[in-house]
Amino acid sequence: MTAPRQMNLVAFLQAQNCSNYPASWRHEGSMSDFLRPEYYQRIARVLEAGKFQMAFFDDRLAIPDIYGNDHASTVENGVRAVKMDLMPIVTAMGLATSRLGLGATYSTTYYEPFHVARLFATLDLMIGGRAAWNIVTSLNDSEAANFGRSEHLEHDARYDRADEFLEVVTGHWNSWDDDALILDKESGRFADAAKVRRLDYEGKYFRSRGPFPVPRSPQGQPVLIQAGQSGRGRAFASRWAEMIFAVFPNLAAGRKGYAEMKAALAAAGRDPASVSIAPAVYAIVGETQSMAEDKKAYIDGLAKPVDGLNLLCEVLNVDFSKKPMDEPFSDEELAGLSWHGFRDRVVSLSGKANPTVRDFVHFSGRGTIREFPCFVGTAKQVADGMEEWFGSACDGFVLAATHMPGSYEDFVRHVVPELQRRGLFQKEYQGATLRENLRLPMHPAGGLRRSAA
Questions:
Q1: Is 19 annotated as a binding residue?
Q2: What pLDDT shows up at residue 29?
Q3: Is 364 annotated as a binding residue?
Q4: How many beta carbons lie within 10 A of that of residue 85, not counting itself?
Q5: pLDDT tens across 67-99, in order?
Q6: Residue 172 known to bind ligand
Q7: Residue 264: per-residue pLDDT
Q8: Which residue ranges form the domains of the chain, and what is each CATH number?
C-alpha cells in the first residue's frame, strides 16, 4: 500500500538582525539577541518540536549598499545589515537538536569547491547526517568587491562555473566507500586504501586532485538545495537539486511553475517525484480571522520604503536611485539585471515587457510581506490554503517569519496539529538523517556526476 503524500516543511532563516522580512526586527515580539547562539538554538528547538524537516539559511556576501552607492540607509534602518557566517550557527543549532535538518547557503562564485566539500562533509558528520547545502551563484558587484574583484560574473557564466563546481564537490564526497574505515587497533589498519579514490578532476574552471580527507556521513552526502526557476538557472537546478526553493507569487503561477519545473526535471532524465519543490510563504495565525488580520496590519505597517529599495538594488545589481521611478527599463538594461528569475516574475506580473522602477517596487513586493504568498487566518484557514497549494503547486513550503521566534511558535502550536490531523504532515520524524526525513535516497559512493542537462 502506497503511503499518503505528505508535505515538507522548511524554515527560511537568516544569520542576521531580521528574518527575510527586513522589518521583522522592529516587531515588538521579536527577540534581539541575534548575536548569540541561544537565539538560533531557541528557534531550532521550536522547529524540531513541530517536526519540521529542515531549517535553511539564505545568505549574501555583502550588505545591501548599491542604492545610492551607500550603506548608510541599510545600517541606519537595519535592512539586513548584519550577515554572519553560517557554519558556526548551524553547528550550534545541530548540537541543540537531534532530528532537524540544517542547510546553509554557500556560493559557487566566491569559494573553492574543495573547501566547500570539506566544510559541508565535516558539518554533516558533526550533526549526524542532517546537513544541506543551498547552492547559489551570488548576485552583485558588492559581493565581488569584498573578494577583490571589479565586477560580478555574467549570469550564464556563473552557472557554467557552478556545474563544474558541483562535479568537483560531489566527486570528492563520493570518493570514500561507506565501509572504507576499518579502525582495527590490533592490526594497526586504519582504512582500506582501495576504497578511497583520488578525484583527479580537470575542467575549464577547476582542477582538483584529492584524495578527499573526510569519510562519508550517515546520509552519504549533504542534501542539495537550489532555487533556479528560469533559463540557465532552471537547467542547473534540474541537473543537481534535490529540493528546489521557489518563489510563486500566487496559486495560478505556482501551478504553472510547478508543472514547468517537473517537466524540466523529466527532460533532464530525472524522476520528477524525487525532487521536492517548495515555495516561500508567510503564515499569520490568529484565534479568529479578525485577530489574524489585525496581526497582519501591524506587521505590514512595520515596513519602510527604504527596505524595498535597498533590497531590490541588492538582488538586481543596479542602482535604482539613478533612474526615474516611471522610466521603463530598456531591453539592454533588463538583460543586465543579475537575477533573471526575479526580473521575469516582475515582467509577468506587471504585464509589461519593459517595466519601470515603480513596477519593480510594486510587483515584487520586495521588503514587504507581499513578496511571498501570505496565509492569514485561523489555524484551519491557514491549513486550508496550504492544502490547496499542496494539491497542485508544490511538495511543501519554505516558511518565512514575520518576527522571531513568534512566527514559528504560532505555526507549530496552531497550524502543525491541524496539518497532522488531516494527514498532510508527519507526526514523527522518519529517521535520524535529513535524507530519511525528506524521503531521499542515499547516493552510492563512487563519484556522483550527473550528465549535463
A1: no
A2: 96
A3: no
A4: 11
A5: 999 999 999 999 999 999 999 999 999 999 999
A6: no
A7: 95
A8: 8-438 (3.20.20.30)
Distances (CA, A) of 418 to 383, 386, 412, 427: 7, 11, 10, 11
pLDDT score for 361:
87
Contact 45, 96 (CB under 8 A): yes
C-beta separation of 63 from 437 below 8 A: no
Q: Which residues of the chain have pLDDT under 50?
A: 447-448, 453
Annotated binding residue at 159?
Answer: yes
Q: What is the pLDDT of residues 427-439, one digit of tens each?
A: 999 999 999 999 9
pTM of the model: 0.93
CB 9 within 8 A of CB 280: no
Question: Is residue 105 marked as binding?
Answer: yes
Residue 188 burial class via C-beta count within 10 angstroms: exposed 0-12, middle 13-18, buried 19 and up: exposed
Contacts of 264 (CB under 8 A, 6+ apart): 234, 235, 237, 238, 453
Residue 288's pLDDT is: 97
To which residue does cell 545541530 refer? 94
Contact 220, 445 (CB under 8 A): yes
pLDDT score, position 152: 75
